[in-house]
Amino acid sequence: LRVERLVVHELAMPLLAPFETSFGRSEVRRFLLVEAQADGLSGWAECCAMDAPLYNEETVGTAWHVIRDYLAPLLLGRPFEHPSEVSGWFRAIRRHHMARSALESACWDLYAQAVGQPLYRLLGGSKDRIEVGVSVGIQPTLADLCRTVEGFLAQGYRKVKVKIKPGWDVQVIGELRRVFGDIPLMADANSAYTLADLPTLQALDAYGLMMIEQPLAHDDIIDHAQLQRALRTPLCLDESIHHAEDARRALELGACRIINIKVPRVGGLQAAKAVHDVCRERGAPVWCGGMLESGVGRAHNIAITTLPGFTLPGDTSASSRYWAEDIIEPPVVMDPDGTIAVPQAPGRGYEVVPARVARYRVRCEALRA
Ligand SMILES: [Mg+2]
After folding, report:
1. Residues 332 and 299 sit within 8 Å (Cβ to Cβ)
2. How far is the CA of 315 from the centre of ligand 1 (A)?
3. What does pTM read for this prediction?
4. Which of 49, 70, 189, 240 is deepest in the core (most CB within 10 A)?
5. Distance, CA 355 to ligand 1 centroid (Å)?
């Protein structure tokens, strides 16, 4: 198989409701879709880099540039026997994992369709349903937060993750425990704290959280190890883990006990499998985080979550969590038991609807070998 043509689409899709984290607030999601074409088939994947370099160093603009000027020339026209080869072609490019992930993941989808297999099975997954959690952004008031969480629990979500930041933390978690009791609950700080906040983070220990995600610096594993020794609650790393070696070092150092695997953050599906394998060998559970993906990114997240080490519910919620109308058919639907059925059709298992892509598209370019 060789990619003959690569189409890069930039979309701007309005979110159903604004999403706020310790980085800021989003109302419209700008992102890239890549479409890798070969033999009359289209492999699709999403580049989830944000507008601004606030989650990591990448942006929609840098991803566009790196894909068009550096990655596409390495991909176009080059034959592969199996998509696991593709990430190696990008090895000379430093970082830009989200841009790399988009092209690599599109090749997996393309190949899965060519061989008539569902993507999840090609990746080595075996579950036919995945468990789903929901990520809740920072809300204007505690009452708003409780109303929002109540709605999601009623829909069946199996894990509630709330975003925290200094001043929106212990009181918030305490209130959720008071109102909702012993629900599966976790907090994500997106690096909003330092070791000077140890008393606050230790106060969270009283609430039996499943984990606290990335409390300290985005590029740290040393201070996280010190913090983990001072807490009962497991720490989970997100931003600090860029590849399997980071995962190995963090686990060996005791910087966390759980890892949030985001396929784009680590550079693609092959890399995500490698992080999964390192964690599994060391008995550390993993789960799949989200980046406000459209249905295309969501489909890839569902596929990777079928691997056996993904034992905790992920953030891959239903399309309706974020979008009035997703760009795929059928939309991702969560059943009332808080699970999503893994599609059994070849490839990603959800059809991309061209008219909807066109409706939200703001820029598009076709690249050839
Ligand atoms: Mg996170």
Report:
1. yes
2. 10
3. 0.95
4. 49
5. 32
CA torsion, ordered 279, 285, 290, 295, to nearest 10 deg: 90
Closest CA to 109 of 353, 340, 352: 352
Assess whether pLDDT exceeds 90 at residue 19. no
How would you class 176 by CB atoms within 10 Å of its CB: exposed for 0-12, middle for 13-18, buried for 19 or more?
buried
- Torsion sign over Cα 322, 326, 332, 337: positive
CA 347, CA 196: separation in Å to the nearest integer?
Answer: 48
Q: What is the pLDDT of residue 20?
A: 77
Report the alpha-carbon distance of residue 73 to residue 89 in Å, rounded: 10
- Place 22 in a pLDDT band, splitting at 50, 70 and 90: low
DSSP state of 177: H
Looking from the CA of 171 toward its CB, the CA atoms found within 13 Å total 8
- CA–centroid distance, residue 11 to ligand 1 (Å): 23
pLDDT given at position 332? 96
Average pLDDT over residues 81-106: 97
Only one residue has tokens 């691997």, namely: 307
Q: Which are the catalytic amino acids?
A: 163, 262
Supply 337's token pair.
Answer: 């038991």
Task: Tell me the pLDDT tens digit for each residue of 255-306.
Answer: 999 999 999 999 999 999 999 999 999 999 999 999 999 999 999 999 999 9
| Gap from CA of 240 to ligand 1 centroid (Å) | 10
